[in-house]
Amino acid sequence: MAQQKPSIPKGTRDFSPAEMMRRNYIFDTIRQVFRTYGFAPLETPAMENLSTLLGKYGDEGDKLLFRILNSGDYAAGLSDGELRSASHISEKGLRYDLTVPFARYVVQHQGELTFPFKRYQMQPVWRADRPQKGRYREFYQCDVDVIGTRSLLCEVELVEIVERVFAALGIRVALKMNNRKILYGIAEAIGHADKMTDITVAIDKLEKIGLENVRAELLGRGLSPEAVDRLQPILELSGDNDSKLTQLRDVLACSETGLKGIEEMRTVFDCVARLGLAMPVELDLSLARGLNYYTGAIFEVKALDFAIGSISGGGRYDDLTGIFGMPDVSGVGISFGADRIYDVMTGLGLFPAELNCSTRVLFTNLGEAEQAAVLPLLRSVRDAGVPAEIYPDQARMKKQMEYANRRGIPLVAIVGSEELAAGVVTLKDMRTGDQRQVPFAEVAGAVK
Amino acid sequence: MAQQKPSIPKGTRDFSPAEMMRRNYIFDTIRQVFRTYGFAPLETPAMENLSTLLGKYGDEGDKLLFRILNSGDYAAGLSDGELRSASHISEKGLRYDLTVPFARYVVQHQGELTFPFKRYQMQPVWRADRPQKGRYREFYQCDVDVIGTRSLLCEVELVEIVERVFAALGIRVALKMNNRKILYGIAEAIGHADKMTDITVAIDKLEKIGLENVRAELLGRGLSPEAVDRLQPILELSGDNDSKLTQLRDVLACSETGLKGIEEMRTVFDCVARLGLAMPVELDLSLARGLNYYTGAIFEVKALDFAIGSISGGGRYDDLTGIFGMPDVSGVGISFGADRIYDVMTGLGLFPAELNCSTRVLFTNLGEAEQAAVLPLLRSVRDAGVPAEIYPDQARMKKQMEYANRRGIPLVAIVGSEELAAGVVTLKDMRTGDQRQVPFAEVAGAVK
């Protein structure tokens, strides 16, 4: 076989043991919180039929799907022209997110499920995006959703989950919330129900470009001067959530949908306030999130001490499963961005130091007799639940100590000829250099 | 969007919450043992370059690779003929196993790694095999390998890992071992070094077809009658490992490689014997395993109480990384078959009952005032680390109890108007039907 310089496809990554231990720390923390809130795990296949995926992410999304070439002789029986159309040579694709497979799963298995159905899902997704810093072609999503209830307690629960996850990870965050019904209500109230997106984008730019420029932009997008005048009090909203909602109620008095959105947010904020969370939860009218399927609450989480995009986000959707023929099933969910959370924790030095190595003790291997004495000791340490190793070869002491150092193993248990004669182990703390001797029978207890 | 009956590609599976909890139990158990032995996690991308994958699994394996269609306009600039060749329209494939990506990783990152490098990897692999009972197109492999040492302590450690994993899972197993050097030695000793595979296959059939038929088959495969005569004592080997190795030593006296294999096995068996494992570890000369890269010890694990193929297997390889230009790096590893282990545990009823649901308590939701009283109680229970839920809607009691039943939640915490007035929760054990009342302040302690 020819020699070759090995590499991996662009936009993909290997995760080294050090990275994996940090990533697993994040995943384990998130999973633990999901479980505490009664969410159960689900996994779906990496491949879905293209009929499941196509048309769910817009034209741009369709182009970013990774397609699987049909197995066997994909070209058999096809004309030259047909070979130029992906639909003839490919009928499966890699999942693009966890939401569409989840909707597909719920519809396919609706008869077996107990609703409300609370599930979490932590799996990789694939997108043929142009790779760039912080954007990958394979990345994990960590989604948590409850489907089959309109109860706003679910929104409250997601707020608590966000608080608990980031508190456990040590990341200070603020949770921004908005509501699609309020955004629609604003557009409706100023007489431009069709321009909800333009108006939201303009509100979003307020801090950056100032009130006058936002006014100009809205006029340029076809809003009437009167509509822009009516929008102005909304742009200038201030105060706490309660005060903002009170002001909004006056402006949206004529929009039934808008008033419903205000009521939803008030319920959620009241409930959250009673829980007394340390995390700030703020109404932010500039929050829109691109996903068209959201119909109620929208969430976005920002790290307070590190400049990066949102590290978690989600919302309420009233018809996710309608695309698969199961209408009127409301759900709400959020997704945690593992890669960005990893970057924040690395940037702020938040990973616990002991994550660098799970092995607590390395036993030396300094000769046949020493090795024979060490093996039962090693077994007793492992029996006690302490991750431990023996250096597999009878190498020089220096080489074995280097191995412990490079691996980040905190304790070396030395058994040389003197220790063997005395029936003791010399335990060396690799950080302080301190040494002490422990009888064979007490090793497991001493390293625990 | 058109309605469609959703489904998933053949040979793939959704894993429901109940299945996931059982699968995670298996994965967590295996992972915990791997960690206890000092192995560190690694993950590689789902996609590899086809140049990495092709030619590593034989012609049959190449055909079973799932290929990714090139992104963008895959047909641009290609002739009609080129479109009929997969190599022109596809340059990436899904990984087929974890071994080749591991070898690729070690070569690519050799400068950063500390050898011996001990890693485990638990990820799905994909094969375009014909789906059938127990054979899937997407399935997980759980591999553990140490690379960069020839120490037989690694073989011993893998034996211990097998014992510990299956003891923890409650599966009684026997570990069969063989050694490629012995197989080669046998072939060499009877003058047919080129017929190692034929001879091994024949030995394997001994129990099924009997000595005379094996003799006939070997003659049919071109072995001389003298060679078959010389093989006969090997076919009739009996006794414990030690006695078999002693008998073998006489037969293989003229094969240096064979004697080396005997010595290796004796070292491993002696070391294992001193550890006093409960699990039987048996020399089985019929064990060959198909993978050509094995060069020393070979392992296979059989469940003793359930009829199924091997549930774990592996071996020593001396040149896995040579295909990527890094020769002479010896390693040894084993792989655990999660799907078969799942089937054994299901068949023998070995999964703990509490795996059915991680939620311990469901709080009822019987009205506005009741809900307001329950939310802080629920939070206190979750603060205590107990997975708990509130029924999100104010539905009829019967519906809420049914939800708890169907989910398998063992405890329901009822707060109705009477409980609310008295400041107590009625805790109902869903299995026994027993009820007791607990003051609000004591709920978290009571359910813990």
From TrEMBL, chains A, B:
Binding sites annotated in the UniProt record for L-histidine: D97, L98, T99, R127, Q141, D145, R289, Y293, Y294
- What is an example of a GO molecular function annotated in this UniProt entry? histidine-tRNA ligase activity
Q: Which reaction does it catalyse?
A: tRNA(His) + L-histidine + ATP = L-histidyl-tRNA(His) + AMP + diphosphate + H(+)
What coarse category fits the chief subcellular location reported for this protein?
cytoplasm
Task: Specify the enzyme's EC class, one word.
Answer: ligase
All residue ranges annotated as the Aminoacyl-transfer RNA synthetases class-II family profile domain in the record: 1-376
Q: Where in the cell is it found?
A: Cytoplasm
Q: Does the keyword Plastid apply?
A: no
Q: Which PROSITE patterns match?
A: AA_TRNA_LIGASE_II
Sorted UniProt keywords: Aminoacyl-tRNA synthetase, ATP-binding, Cytoplasm, Ligase, Nucleotide-binding, Protein biosynthesis
Question: Which superkingdom?
Answer: Bacteria
Query: What GO terms in the biological process aspect are recorded for it?
Result: histidyl-tRNA aminoacylation
Enzyme Commission numbers on file: 6.1.1.21
- Gene Ontology annotations for the cellular component aspect, listed alphabetically: cytoplasm
Per the record, the similarity remark reads: Belongs to the class-II aminoacyl-tRNA synthetase family.
**Assembly state and interactors?**
Homodimer.
NCBIfam families from the UniProt entry: hisS
HAMAP family found in the cross-reference section: His_tRNA_synth
Q: What is this protein called?
A: Histidine--tRNA ligase
Give the organism, scientific name.
Alistipes dispar
Lineage per the UniProt record: Bacteria, Pseudomonadati, Bacteroidota, Bacteroidia, Bacteroidales
**Gene symbol?**
hisS
